[in-house]
Amino acid sequence: MKSAPWVALVAMGFGGAAVAQDSKALNVEGTALVTEAAAPSHMENVDTIYSGWRFRSGETQALQTDDFDNPAMVFVDQGIDQFGKIDGTEGKACSSCHENIEDFAGLRPQLPRVQDGKLVSMENLVNTCRTERMGAEPWKWSGGQMTAVTALIGLQSRGMPIDVAIDGDAAPFWEKGKELYYTRVGQLDMSCSNCHEDNYGTMIRADHLSQGQINGFPTYRLKNAKLNSTHGRFKGCMKNIRATPFAEGGDEFKALELYLASRGQGLAVESPSVRN
């Protein structure tokens, strides 16, 4: 079974970032967040799962421990504005129906989920409200308005454990996501598992590969200084291996999102997190 390779670095006496990366203590605004858990039983090749926060440098980790320092919170503030903004032919805002944003606590850990026979992500729920209840245009899946509002909604569940359903109606979607995770694609002939299961913890492009957990999305990336959606990150990974990306919001990425969420069962929701 695979164990965290940076632990060996600590044992050998290497200091600095390696020690910080093995810290288990992510505490945000007085709330302790679980960053390590036993791998779900369906993961045959991994014993322990780790949040992507555990693979970051101490400086990057520190940004997430204080909402005042977390650059993602600027976008959460924008989400608050969008949540209360009237839009569409019905003269409504999100807040017209959902008066207390805190009522969304518990939603983020359960997504994606099956509704009316279809697998839906948070972005689907937001756009359904916009088009069917507000008479407004749908937002772009990874657009700034969408990521700001999904970060705001996800924040309400911060600290709660990821707990998606993968049986019953969800089973065929989960199986499809698993197939995609292990299928080699692109000119580099690679799968998600080649990096995030076989080689996590190793260095690539001057950074540590993580397990590819999605419990922190949408996440603020220092690389592009904005909030990034889960599907946007999937798209970026596929481009990196020179494969043609699936469509954001499409069936393939939603199935992959469900499978990846299931690989993080028990880790705490960190939305919005900070990553490189």
Characterize the structure shown.
The protein is α+β, with helices and mostly antiparallel strands. 36% of the residues lie in helices and 11% in strands. Strand 5 and strand 6 form a beta hairpin. The N terminus is likely disordered.
Topology:
Blueprint: H1 6-11, H2 17-21, E1 26-28, E2 31-33, E3 36-38, E4 48-50, H3 58-64, H4 73-83, H5 94-97, E5 113-115, E6 118-120, H6 122-133, H7 144-155, H8 171-182, H9 192-196, E7 203-204, E8 207-208, E9 219-221, E10 226-228, H10 230-240, H11 251-263, E11 273-275
Parallel strand pairs: 9-11
Antiparallel strand pairs: 1-2, 3-4, 5-6, 7-8, 9-10
Helix pairs in contact: 4-7, 8-11
Number-wise, the strands total: 11
Strand arrangement, largest sheet? 10-9-11
Low-confidence stretches: 1-21
Coarse shape: globular
Give the topology string: H per helix, E per strand.
Answer: HHEEEEHHHEEHHHHEEEEHHE
Derived from helix and strand composition plus strand pairing, the structural class reads alpha+beta
Annotation field: number of helices: 11
> Could you estimate the helical fraction of the residues in percent?
25-40%
